[in-house]
Amino acid sequence: MTTDGPTNGAAAPRVGCVYRPQTAPERIAAAANAADAAGLDELWLWEDCFLAGGVSAAAVALSHSTELTVGVGVLPVPLRNVALAAMEIATLARAFPGRVRIGMGHGVQDWMAQVGEKVGSPMTLLREYLTCLTALLRGEHVTFHGRYVSLDRVQLDWPPEPMPGILAAAEGPKTLRLSGELAAGTVITSGTSPDQLRVAVSRVREGSGTRPHTIVTYLLCTTGPDARRELLDEIGEWGYDPGADLGVWGTADEIAGGARRWLDAGADTLVFQPRASTPIEEFVEFVGAEVSPLLRRS
């Protein structure tokens, strides 16, 4: 199984859900099991300060499922030495081949400052980091001395087979192009409208050219009798524009129909993002059993 294919109109989209880190980590196992049983393609975890660790949370989810792909979106690169990140990712990928997707990102700058890891040029760090991380995961012998990343004859003893494609979180034009150039895919944040997604994908393609590059998009989603109001509340809590096209709500048919706007705009993986208060086991069951089949048939 591969999870890093190109955006392709002939291919069925991959469908996932976000496990919000505001939900206690001891519930990850049950959520992953429920997602697996419901036929959901992917479960995505966040590493937000100062909640659950992304790699350890992914290990829990992977060990309590059999088919589910688990994504981490994303690991903030200032927090980890690149060699350590490569070791952690390789361990997951070898233990659970074909089921791991890892995204890397600048990190929230206020949080990075809070832990003493903020850098002067996040773009330079991300470029150096992605270059070295992918080389290490390919099993290469790496010597590199950059502004932030320094490696001297480093090589993994247990490189992953197959190598997981490393994704990058990107929002601004420069980071989008960098992701297209150096990553296997791009993670697009929630609060991105279909029109904004089209622009972002065009920026990514400036970097990737004709090479395969996957587009993972988080999408705000609510269901139930008060779904529309809850979506507007969620949009407001994030500080997004309440008049913009930023989410889907309603029944499975309504959600699948609305989500196609993001597929048409260039996403090949849709990751439905619930409210933090939503019971996560119920949400993954609903998306996996009811929404996902509708999107696959489309």
Automatic annotation (TrEMBL):
One Pfam family cited in the UniProt record for this chain: Bac_luciferase
Domain Luciferase-like: 19-211
UniProtKB keywords: Oxidoreductase
InterPro entries per the UniProt record, alphabetical: F420-G6PD/mer, Luciferase-like_dom, Luciferase-like_sf
Superkingdom per UniProt: Bacteria
Protein name: LLM class flavin-dependent oxidoreductase
The organism's taxonomic lineage, starting at the top: Bacteria, Bacillati, Actinomycetota, Actinomycetes, Mycobacteriales
